[in-house]
Amino acid sequence: MFNNNAFKIQNFLVVFFYILIMNTTLPADQRRKSITFGLGGDVMIGRNVGESILKKGLMYPWGSLLTSLRSTSFNLVNLESTLTKSTKKNPQPKAFNFQSDPKNIEALLKAHIQVVNLANNHSLDFEDEGLEETLNVLNKNNMYHVGAGMNLEQAQKPAIFTKNGFRFAVLGFTDNEPLWAATDKKPGNNFITINQKTAESIKPLIQNTKKDADILIVSLHWGPNWEEKPSKEFVNFAHALIDAGADVIHGHSAHIFQGIELYKNKLIFYSCGDLLDDYKVEKLLRNDETFLCIITVDKEGIQKLQLVPALISNEQVNQAEGQDSKRLIEKMQKISKELGPIKIDDEGLWLR
Fold first, then answer.
1. For the domain with range 32-351, which CATH number is right: 3.60.120.10, 3.60.21.10, 3.30.70.270, 3.40.630.10?
2. pLDDT of 195-223, one tens digit each?
3. d(C-alpha 152, C-alpha 341), whole Å
Protein backbone atom coordinates (compact mmCIF):
# COMPACT_ATOMS: atom_id res chain seq x y z
CA MET A 1 0.00 0.00 0.00
CA PHE A 2 1.27 3.48 -0.94
CA ASN A 3 2.55 5.40 2.11
CA ASN A 4 1.71 9.11 1.60
CA ASN A 5 3.76 10.23 4.62
CA ALA A 6 6.84 8.43 3.35
CA PHE A 7 6.33 10.06 -0.05
CA LYS A 8 6.17 13.52 1.57
CA ILE A 9 9.30 12.85 3.61
CA GLN A 10 11.14 11.68 0.51
CA ASN A 11 10.15 14.81 -1.41
CA PHE A 12 11.19 17.01 1.50
CA LEU A 13 14.61 15.38 1.65
CA VAL A 14 15.11 15.79 -2.12
CA VAL A 15 14.26 19.49 -1.93
CA PHE A 16 16.36 19.99 1.22
CA PHE A 17 19.48 18.44 -0.27
CA TYR A 18 18.96 20.30 -3.57
CA ILE A 19 18.88 23.64 -1.71
CA LEU A 20 21.90 22.63 0.37
CA ILE A 21 23.92 21.68 -2.71
CA MET A 22 22.94 24.80 -4.61
CA ASN A 23 23.73 27.01 -1.62
CA THR A 24 27.24 25.61 -1.25
CA THR A 25 28.03 25.82 -4.96
CA LEU A 26 26.87 29.41 -5.46
CA PRO A 27 29.48 32.19 -5.22
CA ALA A 28 29.96 33.40 -1.64
CA ASP A 29 28.43 36.81 -2.42
CA GLN A 30 25.19 35.19 -3.57
CA ARG A 31 25.06 32.70 -0.68
CA ARG A 32 25.23 35.52 1.85
CA LYS A 33 23.00 37.82 -0.25
CA SER A 34 25.83 40.36 -0.23
CA ILE A 35 28.32 41.70 -2.72
CA THR A 36 31.84 43.09 -2.60
CA PHE A 37 33.31 45.81 -4.79
CA GLY A 38 36.64 47.63 -4.80
CA LEU A 39 37.64 51.28 -4.93
CA GLY A 40 41.05 52.43 -6.13
CA GLY A 41 42.53 55.84 -6.80
CA ASP A 42 44.10 57.25 -9.95
CA VAL A 43 45.09 54.75 -12.64
CA MET A 44 47.48 56.03 -15.32
CA ILE A 45 48.24 53.40 -17.97
CA GLY A 46 50.15 55.62 -20.41
CA ARG A 47 53.87 56.44 -20.78
CA ASN A 48 56.08 53.87 -19.04
CA VAL A 49 53.11 51.84 -17.79
CA GLY A 50 51.96 51.41 -21.39
CA GLU A 51 55.48 50.38 -22.40
CA SER A 52 55.55 47.81 -19.58
CA ILE A 53 52.22 46.38 -20.75
CA LEU A 54 53.63 46.08 -24.27
CA LYS A 55 56.84 44.37 -23.13
CA LYS A 56 55.67 42.37 -20.10
CA GLY A 57 52.00 41.68 -20.74
CA LEU A 58 48.56 42.80 -19.60
CA MET A 59 48.90 41.29 -16.12
CA TYR A 60 52.21 42.93 -15.26
CA PRO A 61 50.91 46.26 -13.87
CA TRP A 62 48.81 44.57 -11.18
CA GLY A 63 51.56 42.50 -9.57
CA SER A 64 50.52 40.60 -6.47
CA LEU A 65 47.49 42.88 -6.01
CA LEU A 66 45.77 41.08 -8.88
CA THR A 67 44.31 38.41 -6.59
CA SER A 68 42.57 41.02 -4.44
CA LEU A 69 41.39 42.94 -7.49
CA ARG A 70 39.85 39.77 -8.89
CA SER A 71 38.19 38.86 -5.59
CA THR A 72 35.55 41.57 -6.07
CA SER A 73 32.48 41.67 -8.28
CA PHE A 74 33.80 44.88 -9.82
CA ASN A 75 36.29 47.68 -9.20
CA LEU A 76 35.93 51.44 -9.69
CA VAL A 77 38.92 53.70 -10.33
CA ASN A 78 39.69 57.16 -11.67
CA LEU A 79 41.09 56.68 -15.18
CA GLU A 80 43.93 59.19 -15.43
CA SER A 81 44.81 58.63 -19.09
CA THR A 82 42.95 58.81 -22.37
CA LEU A 83 42.56 55.70 -24.53
CA THR A 84 43.41 57.17 -27.90
CA LYS A 85 45.89 57.17 -30.75
CA SER A 86 45.26 60.84 -31.41
CA THR A 87 48.30 63.12 -31.69
CA LYS A 88 46.23 66.27 -31.30
CA LYS A 89 47.36 67.56 -27.89
CA ASN A 90 45.21 70.06 -26.08
CA PRO A 91 46.78 73.53 -26.51
CA GLN A 92 46.10 74.41 -22.87
CA PRO A 93 49.52 74.60 -21.14
CA LYS A 94 50.06 71.45 -19.05
CA ALA A 95 53.03 69.65 -17.59
CA PHE A 96 51.76 66.22 -18.71
CA ASN A 97 49.40 64.87 -21.34
CA PHE A 98 48.52 61.22 -20.75
CA GLN A 99 47.38 58.74 -23.35
CA SER A 100 47.40 54.97 -23.67
CA ASP A 101 46.90 52.66 -26.62
CA PRO A 102 43.17 51.78 -26.76
CA LYS A 103 43.99 48.08 -26.65
CA ASN A 104 45.35 48.57 -23.11
CA ILE A 105 41.78 48.61 -21.88
CA GLU A 106 42.31 44.85 -21.68
CA ALA A 107 44.68 45.42 -18.75
CA LEU A 108 41.85 47.16 -16.87
CA LEU A 109 39.37 44.42 -17.65
CA LYS A 110 41.82 41.73 -16.47
CA ALA A 111 41.79 43.43 -13.04
CA HIS A 112 37.96 43.50 -12.80
CA ILE A 113 37.97 47.26 -13.38
CA GLN A 114 34.53 47.65 -14.87
CA VAL A 115 33.69 51.25 -13.91
CA VAL A 116 35.85 54.34 -14.43
CA ASN A 117 35.53 57.99 -13.55
CA LEU A 118 36.60 60.30 -16.39
CA ALA A 119 35.92 63.61 -14.65
CA ASN A 120 39.51 64.71 -14.13
CA ASN A 121 42.32 66.91 -15.41
CA HIS A 122 43.43 64.50 -18.16
CA SER A 123 40.18 63.62 -19.93
CA LEU A 124 40.77 66.23 -22.65
CA ASP A 125 44.56 65.95 -22.89
CA PHE A 126 44.09 65.08 -26.56
CA GLU A 127 41.17 67.40 -27.14
CA ASP A 128 37.63 66.41 -28.10
CA GLU A 129 38.97 63.80 -30.51
CA GLY A 130 40.84 61.97 -27.73
CA LEU A 131 37.85 62.05 -25.38
CA GLU A 132 35.50 60.78 -28.08
CA GLU A 133 37.80 57.86 -28.90
CA THR A 134 38.16 57.06 -25.19
CA LEU A 135 34.38 56.96 -24.80
CA ASN A 136 34.02 54.76 -27.88
CA VAL A 137 36.66 52.32 -26.61
CA LEU A 138 34.96 52.08 -23.22
CA ASN A 139 31.53 51.56 -24.77
CA LYS A 140 32.82 48.95 -27.18
CA ASN A 141 34.24 46.98 -24.25
CA ASN A 142 31.12 47.36 -22.08
CA MET A 143 32.95 49.37 -19.44
CA TYR A 144 30.82 51.80 -17.44
CA HIS A 145 32.06 55.38 -17.28
CA VAL A 146 30.97 58.63 -15.65
CA GLY A 147 31.99 62.25 -15.39
CA ALA A 148 32.78 63.24 -18.99
CA GLY A 149 30.99 63.21 -22.32
CA MET A 150 30.44 64.84 -25.65
CA ASN A 151 27.97 67.23 -24.00
CA LEU A 152 26.77 68.13 -20.52
CA GLU A 153 23.96 65.59 -20.50
CA GLN A 154 26.42 62.75 -21.15
CA ALA A 155 28.90 64.10 -18.59
CA GLN A 156 26.23 64.23 -15.88
CA LYS A 157 24.67 60.87 -16.72
CA PRO A 158 25.06 58.21 -14.01
CA ALA A 159 26.22 54.68 -14.71
CA ILE A 160 23.51 52.33 -13.46
CA PHE A 161 24.01 48.57 -13.47
CA THR A 162 23.06 45.40 -11.61
CA LYS A 163 25.46 42.91 -10.04
CA ASN A 164 24.23 39.79 -8.24
CA GLY A 165 20.81 41.33 -7.74
CA PHE A 166 22.16 44.63 -6.38
CA ARG A 167 21.46 47.85 -8.26
CA PHE A 168 24.45 50.23 -8.34
CA ALA A 169 24.62 53.82 -9.51
CA VAL A 170 27.78 55.91 -9.95
CA LEU A 171 28.09 59.66 -10.55
CA GLY A 172 31.32 61.46 -11.45
CA PHE A 173 32.39 65.06 -10.77
CA THR A 174 35.56 67.15 -10.75
CA ASP A 175 36.60 70.61 -9.59
CA ASN A 176 39.69 70.44 -11.85
CA GLU A 177 40.08 72.28 -15.18
CA PRO A 178 37.12 74.72 -15.29
CA LEU A 179 37.90 75.45 -18.94
CA TRP A 180 37.06 71.83 -19.71
CA ALA A 181 33.53 72.00 -18.30
CA ALA A 182 31.05 70.32 -20.61
CA THR A 183 28.14 72.37 -21.94
CA ASP A 184 25.07 71.55 -23.99
CA LYS A 185 27.19 72.03 -27.12
CA LYS A 186 30.73 71.30 -25.94
CA PRO A 187 32.45 68.07 -24.82
CA GLY A 188 34.10 68.01 -21.42
CA ASN A 189 33.89 67.18 -17.73
CA ASN A 190 31.07 67.27 -15.22
CA PHE A 191 32.67 70.28 -13.53
CA ILE A 192 31.61 71.66 -10.14
CA THR A 193 32.96 73.99 -7.48
CA ILE A 194 33.19 72.63 -3.95
CA ASN A 195 30.89 74.65 -1.72
CA GLN A 196 27.51 74.33 -0.03
CA LYS A 197 25.73 76.17 -2.83
CA THR A 198 26.89 73.51 -5.30
CA ALA A 199 25.97 70.73 -2.89
CA GLU A 200 22.45 72.12 -2.72
CA SER A 201 22.24 72.49 -6.51
CA ILE A 202 23.17 68.84 -7.21
CA LYS A 203 21.01 67.49 -4.40
CA PRO A 204 18.10 66.69 -6.78
CA LEU A 205 20.48 64.72 -9.04
CA ILE A 206 21.72 62.70 -6.06
CA GLN A 207 18.18 62.06 -4.83
CA ASN A 208 16.81 61.05 -8.24
CA THR A 209 19.76 58.78 -8.97
CA LYS A 210 19.43 57.06 -5.60
CA LYS A 211 15.81 56.15 -6.42
CA ASP A 212 17.14 53.72 -9.04
CA ALA A 213 19.85 52.15 -6.89
CA ASP A 214 20.53 50.14 -3.75
CA ILE A 215 24.01 51.70 -3.55
CA LEU A 216 24.97 55.12 -4.91
CA ILE A 217 28.68 55.94 -5.28
CA VAL A 218 29.78 59.51 -5.97
CA SER A 219 33.26 59.67 -7.52
CA LEU A 220 35.04 63.01 -7.02
CA HIS A 221 38.33 64.12 -8.56
CA TRP A 222 38.76 67.07 -6.26
CA GLY A 223 41.20 69.29 -4.47
CA PRO A 224 44.86 70.12 -4.95
CA ASN A 225 47.76 67.67 -5.09
CA TRP A 226 49.66 66.63 -1.95
CA GLU A 227 46.97 67.64 0.56
CA GLU A 228 47.31 65.36 3.60
CA LYS A 229 43.80 65.95 4.91
CA PRO A 230 40.51 67.34 3.61
CA SER A 231 39.55 70.92 4.42
CA LYS A 232 36.43 71.66 6.43
CA GLU A 233 34.73 72.76 3.22
CA PHE A 234 35.40 69.38 1.62
CA VAL A 235 34.14 67.55 4.71
CA ASN A 236 30.94 69.61 4.70
CA PHE A 237 30.47 68.94 0.99
CA ALA A 238 30.87 65.18 1.43
CA HIS A 239 28.43 65.21 4.33
CA ALA A 240 25.88 67.09 2.23
CA LEU A 241 26.10 64.46 -0.53
CA ILE A 242 25.59 61.66 2.00
CA ASP A 243 22.62 63.55 3.47
CA ALA A 244 21.17 63.78 -0.05
CA GLY A 245 21.36 60.01 -0.56
CA ALA A 246 24.91 58.96 -1.50
CA ASP A 247 26.20 55.79 0.18
CA VAL A 248 29.91 56.05 -0.69
CA ILE A 249 32.11 59.02 -1.56
CA HIS A 250 35.03 57.93 -3.76
CA GLY A 251 37.58 60.74 -3.63
CA HIS A 252 40.85 61.08 -5.55
CA SER A 253 43.25 63.68 -7.00
CA ALA A 254 45.67 64.35 -4.11
CA HIS A 255 48.09 61.58 -5.27
CA ILE A 256 48.27 60.44 -1.64
CA PHE A 257 45.66 58.70 0.47
CA GLN A 258 43.73 60.64 3.07
CA GLY A 259 41.65 59.45 5.99
CA ILE A 260 38.37 57.54 5.80
CA GLU A 261 35.29 58.82 7.58
CA LEU A 262 32.25 56.87 8.73
CA TYR A 263 29.32 59.28 8.54
CA LYS A 264 25.77 58.06 9.23
CA ASN A 265 26.94 54.49 8.51
CA LYS A 266 28.17 55.59 5.07
CA LEU A 267 31.81 55.66 3.95
CA ILE A 268 33.74 58.71 2.78
CA PHE A 269 37.12 58.15 1.13
CA TYR A 270 38.46 61.68 0.85
CA SER A 271 41.36 60.53 -1.32
CA CYS A 272 42.23 57.01 -2.42
CA GLY A 273 45.62 58.22 -3.66
CA ASP A 274 47.14 56.63 -6.78
CA LEU A 275 46.67 52.97 -7.67
CA LEU A 276 48.93 52.66 -10.72
CA ASP A 277 51.34 55.04 -12.44
CA ASP A 278 54.98 55.74 -13.31
CA TYR A 279 55.28 58.94 -11.28
CA LYS A 280 58.33 60.10 -9.38
CA VAL A 281 57.94 59.28 -5.70
CA GLU A 282 57.65 62.19 -3.28
CA LYS A 283 59.83 60.82 -0.47
CA LEU A 284 58.04 62.54 2.42
CA LEU A 285 54.39 62.21 1.37
CA ARG A 286 54.87 58.84 -0.41
CA ASN A 287 52.56 58.77 -3.40
CA ASP A 288 53.71 55.17 -3.94
CA GLU A 289 51.67 54.08 -0.91
CA THR A 290 48.06 53.17 -1.53
CA PHE A 291 45.12 50.92 -0.72
CA LEU A 292 42.57 48.86 -2.56
CA CYS A 293 39.40 49.45 -0.54
CA ILE A 294 37.07 46.42 -0.67
CA ILE A 295 33.53 47.12 0.51
CA THR A 296 30.87 44.54 1.35
CA VAL A 297 27.21 45.55 1.18
CA ASP A 298 23.91 43.79 1.64
CA LYS A 299 20.30 44.92 1.46
CA GLU A 300 20.76 46.66 4.82
CA GLY A 301 23.64 48.76 3.53
CA ILE A 302 27.41 48.80 4.05
CA GLN A 303 28.57 46.00 6.33
CA LYS A 304 32.34 45.72 5.96
CA LEU A 305 35.45 47.45 4.67
CA GLN A 306 38.70 45.60 4.05
CA LEU A 307 41.73 47.73 3.32
CA VAL A 308 44.41 46.04 1.22
CA PRO A 309 47.67 48.04 1.53
CA ALA A 310 49.81 48.24 -1.58
CA LEU A 311 52.98 49.82 -2.97
CA ILE A 312 53.68 51.13 -6.47
CA SER A 313 57.10 50.66 -8.08
CA ASN A 314 58.46 49.93 -11.56
CA GLU A 315 55.06 50.60 -13.18
CA GLN A 316 53.49 47.90 -11.02
CA VAL A 317 51.35 47.77 -7.88
CA ASN A 318 51.95 45.01 -5.34
CA GLN A 319 50.24 44.11 -2.10
CA ALA A 320 52.30 45.37 0.83
CA GLU A 321 53.64 42.75 3.22
CA GLY A 322 55.20 42.58 6.67
CA GLN A 323 56.32 45.89 8.13
CA ASP A 324 55.19 47.82 5.06
CA SER A 325 51.65 46.53 5.48
CA LYS A 326 51.70 47.29 9.21
CA ARG A 327 53.01 50.80 8.62
CA LEU A 328 50.40 51.68 6.00
CA ILE A 329 47.51 50.40 8.12
CA GLU A 330 48.77 52.26 11.20
CA LYS A 331 49.02 55.43 9.11
CA MET A 332 45.45 55.01 7.89
CA GLN A 333 44.22 54.29 11.43
CA LYS A 334 45.82 57.50 12.68
CA ILE A 335 44.58 59.87 9.97
CA SER A 336 41.09 58.33 9.95
CA LYS A 337 40.74 58.65 13.72
CA GLU A 338 41.17 62.41 13.30
CA LEU A 339 38.03 62.46 11.15
CA GLY A 340 35.75 60.47 13.43
CA PRO A 341 35.02 57.22 15.23
CA ILE A 342 35.74 54.64 12.53
CA LYS A 343 37.52 51.63 14.06
CA ILE A 344 39.91 50.00 11.61
CA ASP A 345 41.67 47.00 13.16
CA ASP A 346 45.29 45.98 12.68
CA GLU A 347 44.35 43.84 9.70
CA GLY A 348 42.79 46.81 7.93
CA LEU A 349 39.26 45.61 8.64
CA TRP A 350 36.20 47.64 9.66
CA LEU A 351 32.93 45.93 10.54
CA ARG A 352 29.62 47.68 11.02
1. 3.60.21.10
2. 999 999 999 999 999 998 999 999 999 99
3. 38
